[in-house]
Write a structure and sequence with these properties.
4 strands; mainly alpha; 11 helices; Four Helix Bundle (Hemerythrin (Met), subunit A); 3 domains; two-stranded antiparallel ribbon
Length: about 280
């Protein structure tokens, strides 16, 4: 019964989050916080039945690790805060499923499927959109060099996988990896054409993502963000004092919420699919 409740909360919560992210670009706290609360309560209930350090780690360790790693990625400007809270909620609601570690970590498997499906969709969509607009190869030279280097590493990885007898894994990853390399090669041009916006400081939203690679060096020095990739209220006030009126930011970025739901759905319907690829 408790397991079915966990499944239901994950499925319904991630579906609502997918819808709100698609419609508004946000995964709201009023969706993720109740999911996190239900996960904690269910875990405490199970912990009360079998009180032990081993049981505590089984129920809470994945959620804690996901939140810590997610917050670090959020701090660097690599993923949205709503996505992190949703992944934390999923990790608390269902830390592990049946299978071999680490392929029995539910949120990890969901993230893998979400990553593969979103990569295929957005990679193909934006590469084709950029191609129709007209690719400027000169502005993508660094990206193309990076893609070649990663391509060599991926080739070696595929050779290792092949000799390890896991040919099925190559078949699954080949197309997503190829799309990823093309996207990386053209990433700067895609960002410039479809996501780059110049916004006044007054109109900055909470945790705005700074377009560091396009912003002026002197402005970045005034920002003094260090490794931080998002702009908060404190930084906005400091910029206004320094006389900075506008900043280059990324807006209308691809929405990941719908693909988190897709990843969860695939993992719930085919829980042993990743295991089958590795064995």
């Amino acid at each position: 019964m408790i397991l079915l409740l966990r499944y239901a909360v994950i499925l319904i919560g991630s579906l609502i989050a997918a819808y709100t992210d698609y419609k508004t670009g946000y995964i709201f706290d009023k969706i993720t916080y109740p999911m996190i609360a239900v996960g904690i309560l269910l875990n405490l209930f199970e912990l009360g039945i079998e009180v032990s350090l081993e049981k505590f780690l089984e129920l809470f360790s994945v959620g804690i690790i996901v939140f810590a790693l997610g917050y670090a990625m959020y701090f660097l400007g690599k993923i949205g805060g709503g996505d992190i809270k949703l992944f934390t909620a999923i990790a608390l609601l269902l830390p592990f499923e049946t299978g071999i570690f680490p392929l029995n970590i539910f949120v990890l498997n969901s993230l893998i499927w979400a990553g593969i499906t979103s990569l295929l969709f957005y990679g193909v969509y934006f590469v084709l959109k950029y191609a129709r607009k007209g690719i400027i190869w000169k502005e993508n030279i660094e990206g193309m060099k990076k893609a070649v280097g990663l391509g060599v590493l991926i080739l070696f990885y595929f050779l290792m996988v092949y000799y390890a007898g896991m040919e099925k894994l190559i078949l699954v990853l080949l197309i997503p990896m190829a799309v990823a390399l093309i996207f990386i090669a053209l990433e700067k041009g895609i960002k410039k054409n479809f996501f780059l916006k110049k916004i006044s400081i007054e109109k900055m939203e909470e945790d705005e993502l700074i377009a560091v690679e396009f912003e002026k060096k002197e402005t970045l020095e005034k920002l003094n963000l260090g490794l931080k990739g998002v702009l908060g209220e404190k930084e906005k006030k400091e910029l206004q004092k320094a006389g900075v009126k506008e900043l280059l930011v990324y807006r209308d970025l691809p929405k990941f919420g719908p693909f988190i739901f897709v990843g969860v759905l695939i993992n719930l319907v085919f829980p042993q699919l990743l295991v089958a690829l590795f064995i």
